[in-house]
Design a protein that fits this description.
The protein is globular. The protein has one domain. With 273 residues, the protein is mostly helical. The chain has a two-stranded parallel ribbon. The longest helix is centred in the middle third of the chain and has 39 residues. The protein contains twelve helices and two strands; from the N terminus they run αααβαααβαααααα.
Length: 273
C-alpha cells in the first residue's frame, strides 16, 4: 500500500483542514488588498453606479414605461442620487469593509474548490460526480443571485425608497453608511438566497425532503420566508421586504420542481401529480 492509499488519521485530517483554511485566508487577503488598491475606481464605477440614471436597470424601466404607456415618475423620471457623509471615519472604514466583502464574494469559487479537495478523497466515484456538479451549480447560483441583487433588487429598492416622500417639508438625504449597509446586505443575501434550490436538492438526495413534503408545507415556507426577509433586510419597510421575500419564494417554487417524489410516497399516497 502506498502512502497516498493509506488512511489518514484524525490529526492528519485536521492538518489537511488547517492548510486548506490557511490557503483560503491567503486568497481572501490577496483579493482584499487588490480591491483596497482599486477601490476608488470600483466605488465610483460599481458600488455607486445605481445612484446614476445611466444604470442599466433604470434604462430598462424607461423602456418598459414606454412599452406599457406608463407616464408615472417611477418609470420615466430621471434618477440621480447624491450621498452625504456625517461620520468622520466612515469613508476609511467603508473602504476597508467594501474591499473585504468584495474579496469574500469573488473567493467563493476557490472556497468551493478547497471544499472539494478536502472531501473528494473520502467519496466513492459515483458520489464525487454528484458533489462536483453540486459545487459547480452552487457557485453559479451564488453569482446569479449576486447579479440579481446588484442589477435588480437593490436598484429597485434604492429608487423607490430614496424618492419616497412622506411630506414635501422633508428632504431625503441618504447617508453613505445607510447606502453601503443596504447595498451589502441585499446583494449578499440574494447571493445566499439563490443557494436554496441547491440545498433543497442535496437534502432530497439524503432522503430528508421530497416534492410532496415541500408542497405540503408551502404555506409554512411562505411565512418563514417573510420572517427571514424581515430579519435580513436593513430597513423595515414593506417594499424592501417584498423585494427580498418574493425572489425567495420563487426560489422555493423552483426547488419543488427540482426535487423528485420518493417512489414510496407515490405508492403509499396514490401518486399526486
Amino acid at each position: 500500500m502506498t502512502t497516498d492509499e493509506k488512511q489518514l488519521s484524525f490529526w492528519d485530517h485536521l492538518d489537511v483542514l488547517r492548510w486548506a483554511v490557511l490557503r483560503v485566508l491567503a486568497v481572501w487577503t490577496v483579493l482584499a488588498v487588490a480591491y483596497f488598491v482599486a477601490m476608488p475606481w470600483l466605488f465610483d464605477s460599481v458600488v455607486l453606479a445605481p445612484c446614476h440614471d445611466s444604470f442599466p436597470f433604470y434604462r430598462l424601466l424607461r423602456s418598459l414605461g414606454g412599452i406599457l404607456g406608463t407616464s408615472g415618475d417611477f418609470f420615466t423620471k430621471p434618477f440621480e442620487l447624491k450621498l452625504i457623509n456625517i461620520n468622520l471615519a466612515a469613508p476609511f472604514f467603508i473602504h476597508l469593509s467594501t474591499a473585504f466583502w468584495m474579496s469574500v464574494v469573488t473567493a467563493v469559487p476557490y472556497l468551493f474548490f478547497e471544499v472539494w479537495r478536502f472531501i473528494g478523497p473520502a467519496l466513492y466515484p459515483h458520489e464525487r460526480q454528484g458533489v462536483r456538479k453540486a459545487l459547480v451549480l452552487g457557485t453559479l447560483m451564488f453569482f446569479v443571485g449576486v447579479l440579481a441583487g446588484y442589477f435588480m433588487v437593490y436598484p429597485l429598492t434604492l429608487r423607490f425608497l430614496s424618492s419616497y416622500e412622506l411630506s414635501s417639508a422633508i428632504v431625503n438625504q441618504i447617508s453613505l453608511n445607510s447606502y453601503i449597509d443596504n447595498f451589502m446586505m441585499l446583494v449578499l443575501c440574494m447571493g445566499l438566497a439563490f443557494e436554496l434550490p441547491l440545498v433543497t436538492w442535496l437534502l432530497s438526495l439524503l432522503g430528508l425532503v421530497s416534492r410532496r413534503f415541500l408542497r405540503r408545507y408551502r404555506r409554512h415556507a411562505a411565512v418563514a420566508i417573510v420572517v427571514l426577509a424581515a430579519v435580513v433586510t436593513p430597513t423595515g419597510d414593506p417594499f424592501t421586504l417584498a423585494a427580498v421575500a418574493v425572489p425567495l419564494y420563487l426560489l422555493y417554487e423552483l426547488s419543488i420542481l427540482l426535487v423528485a417524489d420518493k417512489p414510496t410516497d407515490n405508492d403509499r399516497e396514490g401518486g399526486e401529480p
